[in-house]
Amino acid sequence: MVSYISTISAASAVATSWCAVRSLWLAVFVAASFSAAGVVAAAGGASPHHPSTAEHGSGTHAVEVETGVWMEYSSASSIFRDLGGLQPRAASSWALRPATTTTHQFDGGTVDYSTADAVLSGNANMAIPRRGFNVAGVKNNGSGWQNEGPGRVEGSGLKLRKSLVDVLVVMFATAARHSLKEHFDSSARTFQSLAGLRQLRRELKGITYKALRGRAWDLAPSGAIGVVLRFGGLGARNGKGQHELLVVTASLVGHNVVTACSAEERCLGEGGCSMHAPMVDALEKVRRAMGVRMDDLFLVLQAPLKTGRLEAGRGVLYGEKTCVVRNGNSSWPFSAVRCTRGGSWVCLSCRTGDGTCGHAGAAVAAAKANLEGLEDSTESDVDKEVDDEERLLAEAGLSAAGAAGDQVATGAVELPPHLPGATEPLLPVNRFKWSPRSAAPRHLVPPLVAQKERADLMRALRDPSRLVRYAAGALCPYCLVGREATTPIEYKKGSVEFEDGVVPATVETWRCHQCLFRVLPDGKSRGVIFHSCYTVYSEAFLFEVAVNLARNGSSVHSASYLREAFTELHTGSKYPLASKRMRTVKILRSAVLLYLALVIKGLPYDTVSCATCRRADGSYAIVSFDGLQLGYRVKYKISFNRTDIKVHAVSRASLVPCMITDEAVSKAIGLVLSVKKEVVATKSSKAITTVTAMRGHVMALALLLGNVVVDGVDKSFAGDKPHMDGRSGERGWDPMVDGGASPQLVAFLRGVFDVRTAARSIALTIEAAAAELRRRVPVALMRRVHALAVELPPHPAIPPPASVVAGGGDGSSSRDATLQAGDEKRGRKRALHAVDRASGSTSSSLSEFSSGSDVCSSEDDDGFDLPRPIPKPAEEVWERDAPLLAYAEALEEPALATTGGAMGAARLLSLSLPLLPHIPSTAASALKVMEFVRAVVVDPVFVWAPQGCWVAIDEVVAVLRSERFSVPALASVLGLPLVAEQRLLRGAVACLGPGLAVDPNLRVLLADVLSALKGRVAEYNKWVGDTDSAAVLDGQALDSLRNNMAAAHPLHTFSHKEYTDAWLLPPASVAAYRSVYSEYTDQWDDYLRTGVWAPGLRVLRPMPGFSGAATANTDLPSCRHEMGKENSHTGGTVGVFCSCAHPKCIGVMVLTGSESQRMPLEFVAQRFVKMPLTTVYDFACATLKSALVRLPYLARLVALRCDRLHWRENHTDCSAAMSPDSFVSLDGVNTSSCEERNALSRRQQHHLRQMKQDQFITFTVYQQVLANAVAMHRDNKTLGESCKWPEWYRRTHVDVSQADRV
User: Fold this and answer.
1) Distance of alpha carbon 468 from its chain centroid, rounded?
2) Which portions of the chain have biased composition (kind: Low complexity) (predicted)?
């Protein structure tokens, strides 16, 4: 057992060595040696016999587990009594063990440990570290580091808190020096004080003005002696809770200096102000340097103060992100407000309401005033002028109290720059506080004088001795009077900015003696824009910035930033003497908007119209509309002032002019007739989810197949009342009674087409519906649906016409017989060719070249091989044997000229509504007929009468009903321009030509359907209570009706007939409209107030304000089309464009809500002298529906068409009659012009979405005008090729006289 004990002791020694940080390899070696010895002893070594249980020392026991095998163990508590289960603490070495470490001997080994209390309390001594370790860097018992680290190297910049007294000395010394130079005479005492201040400033030359820029300001602009200190760049307080922005004031009370600051402390209380000592120290140093008493120093410092700014709540800007607001004579005389990175103003005094308090509001107002040029923290003299307002009012004969009253009474408002100036003198109200700025319109491209002025500014920037001066304006823009001899000219120190920098300038101004308005030079003759009397911009520079924004999509902020960056790069070498700083981005943004407004106001007529498309009266024959889903934030939306007349809708008026008045029925049939979708008899179409759709599909099935037979009797399941008269509860299942289907259309479908495929497709759709919906269908009708779904029924036996059996018929001419004979001959030839191909063309081809199998391999008598015969190439056989080729040539219809080959045959078999077998057709001709039928089924009948002209329908009906019908007669009618204009009508009639020639019944069916189209128009006129030709009211009745409509309540609605009689039928003119509505917003076309910009199309009528939302009974759209919706942003704008190759924008409508299909009707009715022939809109099918229920006059007169792009993509419920490709007159018309122009506007969406309403409208209009100029340049054929568009525009529209000399 001794060996086992040795093994355990060795293990303990290993643990002790490891805990004592001994060498690991030594420990492993010792453990391995003792373990090996123990193993040898256990294998066969002799050992004395022990009892079964023995105790060795305290807590040690030996247990005999087997015979001769003992195990010795010790408990943990007996070994580590004081540690309580914690691991022992490490020791550095055997010789240098700390005194607090206890050593326990165990079985020949030792274990070092420390008590848990000593370790946790930090009293246990640390182990001695190895040589070279820095003890100072060790943490001191968990209470921190013994010594401070070196920290980062401190910068060489100004430490405002450490150099606070020196900074205050520099600020007060500088303020005193400026005051002595500007407000005191040149006496010896003054020179002595200036010399002392100069010496003091030299002593503190380490405090530079460059270091103080943006960190310290004199408080004189706020009307007090003190300073504004900005200790840190960001945040309100630092890590120690100290203010990063502080306003400190000083005043002299008796002989004591009293200080107060903007911190929370009570400066006038017992504790006093924390800034008192440094302020008094700095003032004392300045006083000693000047050699004066303290009261004299305060007298000097008070001289330049603007006491008018001591009113409570007045905010003054210091820099761009700091504002000081006056509170009053208290312990907190001022409050500091800072501007965050996001542009919000946060007050440092009002902790709980730092963004909503009055101080933050005053800061916002001050920033706005500075943005508008009303106030400048360094150069403005507004307060001085406010003191003179009473004197000027007295001189002008106006009282201060009555001036405001007169201003309100006369409705005097400060007009925006985009409106024209006064042509007659206005009343002399008090315009003292109105903002003077440039008001004359500007050209779209700056003239040469603007370029010359920019060159002069560059010279002045290079040579500061060159002075820039702008002479005062000649007349007051409101009173239209000149300057009186007694009125002095005031000289303002302004600055002119352009792309290269800033040039100081002198601006002459004077006050109008009647209204006190400050008269500025407008700057048009010099090529500059006056944002205020202190800020002037080069017109050429603003033009380049505006064009960059509109064409490249960069924001004003990025353009301003790049301008400053480029100026920093080249100013030092290009203009080394320049020292003037640029203004902020906000002022530049305001100046750009002013420039855009002046440009829009001065646009020539050619820029806002299209010389190619406009008619003599200024209107357009074809006009295109499109919505741009790019709006501004809803929170910026302001209500527009639009003069409109509420017009209510005629319920269900859009259903009456349809051949099937129930939309569910027409949609069910139109779905299986759609050429955009695959319709076969083995699968269902769109799923049914409503009871209305189920009823529509069941009635559509009955329309195709007729009534069901119940017990040998036809049963229609008709309701009690017709569709348009009855209610939903009284409706049945008959397609003509309850679905409103035209009997002529039903007869045409059943007598011309094989309806089995379409019927089974509808039946499968019904079967796929939910059981709850199928349960509502009568049992007899559902039984037929089940039968159709299981098996396709045979086609009903329809005897062929007699003309087909006998080879001729009534009304057929010899020419028709010749066409039929030619078709029969081609048919026989085609059959023979088919037989030849079936018998084997390979053998016949071989026999053509050889007479035996060994001819090619035999030899002649001379031993020469015979050459192999060269096969002749097969002849290219054109399909001249098409069965309907003769009809194709006669009727000029390509669809009849070819069968389409194998693909055509497959397509003919897959048609959902093929023609009956006795009607000759091809795959292409059958498709044309099906498109025609779909248009008749789903669209209103007005699509067949463009501009209300039914001549084409009348001519076709006349030839079909003619007793001497012939193919040549039909061809002559189809060749008429009005008939050929409608490709759907002409193509369908021509494709039915072979059948019309042999089947008189087909002619009757087609003529009845076309006549029924006009019949629906008569029913529609009766429904809406109108006629095609309404009489125009006489003068007295017309004036009475117009005045009644103008004087009515804004919510009162009128009928469409009243609006049509009052405004659409009589001749339209601007004078007639202004005689009723004399508001200046309409007369001047104020696009910011009305939200409509169209200077080339003046307001002629009040806008029809359509009341009521779109419903199923009014103008709810059928097709699905995504339009601009108002959510977080407004719906955007609707652009009005011409349709030439280079389209121009002729109008912009800003959406007040979501986009609506009614907007094209509103714009056309308001501004067109003569209604357009065609209006193109991507949702024209819905616009036609709105016109039918709200303005029937426009529905008859204006043809509404979809553009080609959207028609091919997402119009599935309307027919090809809405496509521009269905009309010859629209060939070559750019129907996607609006899409082209709106694609350019998408580049500006990242900053347009952030603008407010007025800025959004202004920039949107300017962008469209700029694109108009580019389009005009592309239209030009002479100068357009030799120069770019800006120079071309300048020569042709700006400097015209110089262009003539060229």
Assistant:
1) 43
2) 839-853
Lookup result for tokens 């640029």: 582
Which residues have C-beta within 8 Å of that of residue 392, sequence separation ≥ 6? 432, 511, 516
Question: Environment class of residue 584 by beta-carbon count within 10 Å: exposed (0-12), middle (13-18) or buried (19+)?
Answer: middle
d(CA 1009, CA 988): 13
Phi/psi of residue 708, each to 5°?
A: -90, 155
Cα atoms in the Cβ-side hemisphere of radius 13 Å centred on 918: 21
Question: Do 908 and 914 form a contact (C-beta atoms < 8 A)?
Answer: yes
Rounded to whole angstroms, the Cα distance separating 912 from 1212 reads 16
Q: What is the mean pLDDT of each run of 10 residues along the chain (1302 residues)?
A: 40 40 41 42 42 54 64 62 48 46 61 60 51 53 55 66 87 88 78 87 84 85 87 69 82 85 74 82 90 88 74 81 82 84 82 77 81 46 46 56 42 67 80 88 94 93 90 91 91 90 92 91 93 92 90 76 76 74 77 92 90 88 88 87 88 89 89 65 66 90 89 84 72 88 93 90 90 90 88 58 44 49 50 46 37 39 47 49 80 85 80 89 89 91 90 94 91 92 92 91 94 92 76 84 88 90 90 80 72 90 80 66 74 89 90 83 92 90 89 91 78 80 87 79 79 90 91 75 85 73 42
Q: What are the structure tokens assigned to 146, written together?
A: 């013994």
Closest by Cα among 1288, 1257, 1285, 1284 to 1270: 1285
**Beta pairing class for 334-339 and 322-326:** antiparallel
AA letter at 574: K
Cβ atoms of 1115 and 1107 within 8 Å: the answer is no
Four-residue CA torsion sign, 6, 9, 11, 14: negative
SS (H, E, C) 1097-1158: CCCCCCEEEECCCCCCCCCCCCCCCCCCCCCCECCCEEEEECCCCCCCEEEEEECCCCCCCC
Report the alpha-carbon distance of residue 953 to residue 960 in Å, rounded: 11
Distances (CA, A) of 483 to 9, 304, 403, 508, 511: 118, 31, 21, 12, 8
- How far apart are the C-alpha atoms of 545 and 555, rounded to whole Å? 10
**What order do you get walking across the sheet with 256-261 strand by strand?**
216-218, 226-230, 245-253, 256-261
Please write the tens of the pLDDT for every residue from 561-593.
777 777 777 777 777 777 777 766 778 888 999
Residue pair 937/660 in contact by the 8 Å Cβ criterion: yes
What is the widest separation between alpha-carbon atoms in the chain?
153
User: Which of 887, 900, 879, 889 lies closest to 998, judged by CA?
Assistant: 887
Angle (CA) 79-81-87 rounded to 5° is 75
| Interatomic CA distance for residues 414 and 431, integer angstroms | 8
In this structure, are residues 274 and 263 in contact, taking their beta carbons and an 8 Å threshold? Answer: yes
Angle formed by the axes of helices 951-960 and 1000-1024, nearest 10° = 150
Place of tokens 């706020």: 222
> C-alpha dihedral over 1004, 1006, 1010, 1015, to 10 degrees?
50
Instruction: Give the per-residue pLDDT at 372.
Output: 57
Nearest-10 crossing angle of helices 841-849, 814-839:
80
pLDDT number for residue 855:
35
The token pair at 939 is 């669209």
3-state secondary structure of 1177: strand
Assess contact for 1129 and 633: CB atoms under 8 A: yes
DSSP 3-state of 470 = strand
Amino acid letter, 1221 = D
CB count in 10 Å sphere of residue 851: 7
98: left (phi over 0), alpha (psi -120 to 50) or beta: beta
Residue 1236 pLDDT: 78
